[in-house]
């Protein structure tokens, strides 16, 4: 039901569900970060919930728990079609039925055969169930991952205004300002893993952690992954201190990450690794942090690519451009 007209109360409920989903990012994989909101029979917000870490309640159950008896005769607004599958928890579609929900609106259809069928189950029990076909930013990496059968990959780099990621001496730190760096750490906390190449690990000795402006660690940390065959013993001190996993190839890394539950990964370099992902069209999104600096000379963010013929398959679509102080974050998406 594309173009479904929501009431003002339903729009507010959808926004509440989307905010709950965003807050769950980075905690739910391999399950999707879903948000749900319950309106009572009079259209008043009665409960909001998000998917808990694996083994915990799904978003609908969390929202129903908060709503209690006020859910009966009400409307559930969910960012993803309620599941009709029994895994570690029971089917959300049945939980909505048992709670007496009269109507279910969901932003995106369930893409997997295993958990699908929730809307049909509800309709067969006399409950209205409608898909809104609304984009949910928090869900997009998981949805792409589910379709492709591998983790969603975002390639991220920082560069000067004249296109260099490192200066002539090979140094790359602090191209961007404080607000951009703070945003990077907020974003890292929402990812399942951060991936770098052995060249970056050896040259920069990165910690690959999500930190607050005062340097303290955020509550959730992504997995630290290094790709490449070079040994890191005795050189990459931060990674050895904090712990990391190493894989020889991109394929090996993506396969291992997928099998172990990762669905949303951030590739932070270096240029050869990013070039390797791009050359095989394994990049689903790009984050380019552009700093108002002119390095005049240096190294680019991507290496090892041959010049492609310009065509639709080589182009990305602009998603957003966000000022961060004097820096600019430009985000692009591949059509998947």
From TrEMBL:
What's the Enzyme Commission number for this chain? 3.5.4.26, 1.1.1.193
Protein name per Swiss-Prot or TrEMBL: Riboflavin biosynthesis protein RibD
NCBIfam families in the record: eubact_ribD
Q: Where is the CMP/dCMP-type deaminase domain?
A: 8-130
Q: Where is this region: Disordered?
A: 16-37
Which organism does this record belong to? Corynebacterium otitidis ATCC 51513
Per UniProt, where does substrate bind?
Answer: 172, 188, 208, 211, 268
The UniProt record gives the binding positions of Zn(2+) as 58, 83, 92
């Amino acid at each position: 039901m594309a173009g479904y007209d929501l009431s003002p109360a339903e729009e507010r409920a959808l926004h509440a569900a989307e905010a709950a989903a965003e807050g769950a990012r980075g905690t739910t994989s391999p399950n999707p970060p879903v948000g749900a909101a319950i309106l009572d029979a009079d259209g008043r917000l009665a409960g909001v919930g998000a998917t808990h870490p694996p083994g915990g309640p799904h978003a609908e159950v969390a929202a129903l728990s908060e709503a209690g008896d006020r859910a009966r005769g009400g409307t559930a607004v969910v960012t993803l079609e309620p599941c009709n599958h029994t895994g570690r928890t029971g089917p959300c579609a049945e939980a909505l039925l048992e709670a007496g929900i009269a109507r279910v609106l969901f932003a995106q259809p369930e893409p997997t055969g295993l958990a699908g069928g929730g809307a049909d189950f509800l309709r067969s029990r006399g409950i209205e169930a409608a898909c809104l076909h609304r984009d949910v930013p928090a869900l997009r990496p998981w949805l792409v991952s589910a379709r492709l059968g591998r983790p969603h990959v975002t390639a991220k780099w920082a560069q000067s205004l004249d296109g260099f990621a490192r200066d002539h001496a090979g140094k790359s730190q602090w191209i961007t300002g404080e607000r951009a760096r703070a945003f990077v750490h907020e974003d890292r906390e929402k990812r399942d893993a951060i991936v770098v190449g052995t060249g970056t690990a050896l040259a920069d000795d990165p910690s690959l952690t999500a930190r607050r402006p005062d340097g303290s660690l955020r509550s959730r940390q992504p997995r630290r992954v290094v790709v490449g065959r070079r040994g890191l013993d005795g050189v990459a001190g931060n990674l050895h201190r904090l712990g990391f996993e190493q894989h020889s190839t991109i394929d090996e890394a993506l396969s291992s990450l997928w099998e172990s539950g990762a669905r949303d990964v951030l590739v932070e370099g270096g240029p050869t690794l990013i070039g390797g992902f791009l050359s095989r069209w394994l990049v689903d999104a790009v984050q380019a942090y552009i700093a108002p600096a002119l390095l005049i000379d240096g190294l680019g963010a991507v290496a090892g690519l041959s010049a492609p013929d310009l065509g639709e398959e080589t182009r990305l679509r602009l998603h957003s451009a966000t000022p961060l102080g004097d820096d600019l974050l430009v985000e692009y998406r591949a059509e998947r």
